[in-house]
Design brief:
Number of helices: 29
Structural class: alpha/beta
Bound molecules: iron/sulfur cluster
Helix content: 40-55%
Radius of gyration: 28 Å
Shape: globular
Largest sheet: 8 strands, mixed
Number of domains: 4
Length: about 800
């Protein structure tokens, strides 16, 4: 028989024939190559509810769930309401802890569903446009989907490969959602395990979303030199027709941008966005596209403010973090609202199948306040044309909710300083005092509220004098708003494998003091400058800052004395002293993915289907801490909880105690601080680090101290520990005015002590803790409970120990 090099053949009716196969080709060969590339499959590919329970319970063993219920009643089913006060159980048998854990789980699974549904929508849309065979392109990396690979064991190569990943997430979501039903799960700890899995799936769903859009929509791919883009309410030119896009799913907006480009409108009109769609608009790029022209108006807190300003001539919205009263608010100022995603339809007429001209006429005449438009080709034409048609009409009428000078005087004069607004305000802003000063002609206090106010409108709801308080604040801040122009680095996407290789050792040894990931919403406890202050403090200290979403925008709003933002002062690589913006909310998956990559690429751990081992490595060796200072959404609960399962601690702002559950270790209980040494399976003591998985802080100053402390890891070498202790102690003295009282627990050797304070601290160790010091050599002779061994391999998993 002649040699067959490619193709296939079939042989029938063979008897007593020997067949020798030299080389397997085609699918079998590809499968063999893929297995080699992915490494051996770990023990938990495609985990279900029970699969990772052992790992969750290992974490809960150290980081005890702490529940903070908002009330002691449950009204979940028609048996209720049930009083769960004290140790009472409800009619269904659930207790207070179980109910609080169920509430927390509900938030996590809602957040996960939100990102996953976003991922599914985007994936279907992009596959329809580009086909399943389109190769995934995330830049120059081999590990292109670290969350997907870690959780499922698969490495997707094409867009079509993402479909079974989404199917898996959706199946698990259904299984878990069923457990919220009354009379299902009863144990708090098992709801907590489900919360952890929901968090993990959230990162998978986010990764699918961003891979699809980065691959197909021309977004930057692991690019540290992405351009700076404009951010702020003052960046929009109100003299031009203005389109404002709100939400998280950029699919529809890309058609609007295409239409603007094709019709030479990018200089003639403005397109700006709020929240994550805004970020993704600045990342979108067709091959022939001009420099970025889309502007970021700002974070969620600016939503109502920009509408009330009257600047938008049309609002287009997609999904997530969109106010429920936009149609009503828009109608007051003749701003049409176009809903482009079936998740938010607002009761508007669905005009998807109608002619664009007819829709424009109906909107212009006021017959409809807006419409649903799910056909993206039509959406692309409809929205810019509405903006151009409505702009002259609206300009002629001077439509704005911001009062004139005369109206302002009258409104301020109506205030009786009853204080109801202050009580209702989630930020406890002193509106009555600011109103009183304004009556005397001093609007400074009112102006100052603009930056702190999160635009929730609760104050207006309770004001008996019907004062549109938000409008009054915005009137006072008109000048500040017009000057509100910042810069933010556009989302760069993933951190590349090469960057991980270069920085991994510094992170694991601690010589890069830590990775601080600032993510999330605009619900800050004391204004958006908080996140800037935190970011600046850690950048000056050479930490590696990773940011995304609304926080990334708000950080770009503030400048130093030379008029420069942090993005202009610090570069965007994955290196100490850099600030890199991964992108919108779904790009948060690249932050967790980066930590997995440190374990996989730098430390050579097997990534595929191996969650517990990778998370164990991150928990004990990678000094990364997340901060969601303005966490407001259910998505933030899911993101933070996913990080926890991955071994990454997270700090949340004080409002986040309303999530009702924290994971905090007892740092005084030495029995909690033991791990195995992977070399021999023997128990070894570790310092109480990190001392929580998820907690809240009260002020940004306190947050700085908590973040620095929780970058400490058992694996730090002496130099790394000394650097981390230096920053922690300095921040504590700077912001809290005291030395941390438990600093000595982190000292294993005199070389761990900050150089500038070594002698002083040795004296304290001797006098206050009874440690023995050799003063001639300035060495510790005895005292530390923890021995330092640079080659020790701390692990929480007995199965990873050589002699286990
Ligand atoms: S779910 Fe249980 S505790 Fe809640 S109202 Fe129903 S019976 Fe009562
Ligand atoms: S609720 Fe209205 S009247 Fe009362 S203090 Fe506030 S703004 Fe003034
Ligand atoms: S709109 Fe602003 S001032 Fe009014 S309650 Fe909300 S945060 Fe407070």
């Amino acid at each position: 028989m002649s040699k067959l090099t490619t193709g296939s053949f079939s042989i029938e009716d063979l008897e007593s024939v020997q067949i020798t196969i030299n080389n397997i080709v085609g699918a079998a060969k590809e499968a063999a190559e893929e297995a080699k590339e992915l490494g051996p499959m770990g023990p938990t590919p495609f985990p279900g509810i029970a699969t990772l329970r052992d790992w969750s319970f290992t974490l809960f063993d150290r980081y005890e769930p702490v529940y903070t219920p908002m009330c002691d009643q449950c009204c979940y089913c028609t048996f209720g309401p049930c009083n769960l006060e004290g140790n009472k159980r409800g009619a269904c048998g659930i207790d207070m802890k179980g109910q609080a854990a169920r509430e927390f789980f509900l938030r996590c699974i809602t957040g996960c569903a939100c990102h996953s549904a976003h991922g599914r929508h985007l994936l279907n849309h992009i596959i329809e446009l580009f086909g399943e065979e389109m190769p995934i392109n995330m830049g120059a990396s081999n590990v292109i989907a670290p969350n997907i690979q870690l959780v499922t064991g698969r490495q997707p190569k094409t867009l079509g490969d993402l479909k079974p990943i989404m199917e898996y997430v959706e199946e698990e979501l259904g299984q878990m959602l069923a457990t919220i039903h009354a009379g299902q799960e009863g144990a708090a700890i098992d709801y907590d395990n489900k919360s952890m899995l929901a968090g993990v799936l959230d990162h998978v769903g986010m990764e699918v979303s961003d891979i699809a859009q980065v691959t197909a929509l021309g977004f930057p791919k692991s690019d540290p030199d992405v351009p700076l883009v404009q951010v702020g309410m003052g960046t929009i030119d109100p003299k031009k027709p203005v389109i404002i896009a709100i939400g998280h799913n950029v699919a529809g907006v890309t058609y609007i941008m295409d239409y603007m480009e094709d019709n030479d409108l990018t200089d003639k009109m403005e397109i700006g966005g709020l929240c994550c769609t805004a970020f993704d608009m600045t990342r979108y790029k067709r091959e022939d596209r001009q420099a970025p022209y889309a502007k970021i108006v700002g974070s969620l807190a600016k939503e109502l403010k920009i509408v009330r300003s009257g600047i938008p001539d049309v609002i287009v919205l997609d999904e997530q973090c969109v106010r429920a009263d936009l149609v009503q608010e828009g109608q007051k100022l003749k701003i049409p609202v176009i809903a482009s995603n079936d998740k938010i339809m607002y009761g508007l007429p669905d005009r998807t199948n109608d002619d664009v001209d007819a829709i424009i006429e109906d909107i212009k005449s006021g017959a409809i306040p807006g419409c649903v438009m799910l056909d993206y080709e039509k959406l692309g034409e409809l929205v810019p044309r509405i903006a151009m048609e409505m702009a002259p009409i609206r300009d002629a009428e001077g439509l704005t909710a911001i009062p004139s000078d005369e109206e302002m005087k009258a409104l301020v004069g109506k205030c009786v300083e009853c204080g109801e607004c202050k009580i209702a305000c989630p930020e406890e802003l002193d509106i009555p005092e600011a109103m009183a000063a304004a009556k005397e002609g001093d609007i400074n206090a009112l102006e100052a509220l603009h930056d702190i106010c999160v635009g929730c409108r609760r104050c207006e709801q309770v004001c008996n004098k019907d004062i549109p308080i938000l409008n009054v604040i915005e009137k006072a801040a008109m000048k500040a708003i017009s000057e509100e122009k910042g810069l933010v680095r556009a989302g760069r996407g993933q951190v590349s494998d090469a960057e991980i290789r270069a920085e991994g050792l510094n992170l694991v040894m601690g010589t890069t003091p830590g990775v601080i990931a600032i993510i999330g919403c605009a619900n800050y406890p004391a204004g958006s400058k908080d996140v800037y202050n935190i970011a600046e403090e850690f950048l000056k200290r050479n930490y590696l800052l990773v940011v995304s979403g609304c926080s990334a925008m708000d950080i770009g709003m503030y400048k130093d004395e030379d008029g420069k933002t942090l993005y202009e002062r610090y570069p965007g690589r994955f290196e100490k002293g850099n600030i890199l913006n991964t992108g919108s909310c779904v790009s948060n998956s690249h932050i967790s993915g980066t930590v997995h990559k440190v374990a996989a690429i730098f430390a050579g751990r097997n990534l595929s289907g191996n969650l517990a081992e990778i998370a164990d490595y991150s928990l004990t060796r990678v000094g990364a801490v997340g901060l969601a200072w303005g966490a407001y959404s259910q998505k933030a609960a899911a993101i933070g909880t996913g990080c926890n399962m991955y071994g990454i601690p997270a700090v949340l702002g004080p409002h986040s105690s309303k999530y009702r559950r924290a994971l905090i270790a007892k740092n005084y209980d030495e029995s909690r601080w033991k791990v195995y040494d992977g070399r021999n399976g023997q128990e070894m003591a570790i310092p109480p680090a990190p001392e929580f998985l998820i907690t809240t802080a009260e002020t940004w100053q306190e947050t700085c101290v908590i973040l620095a402390k929780n970058c400490i890891r058992p694996s730090d070498n002496n130099m790394g520990r000394s650097i981390k202790l230096t920053h922690w102690m300095e921040l504590s003295e700077k912001y809290l005015g005291i030395m941390p009282e438990d600093w000595w627990k982190y000292v294993r050797h005199e070389a761990d002590l900050p150089l500038s304070k070594r002698e002083e601290l040795l004296k304290k160790l001797e006098a206050e803790h009874g440690w023995e010091i050799d003063w001639k050599k300035k060495k510790i002779i005895s005292g530390p409970a923890i021995k330092f061994d640079v080659s020790a391999q701390p692990t929480n998993l007995k199965r990873l120990c050589k002699e286990a």
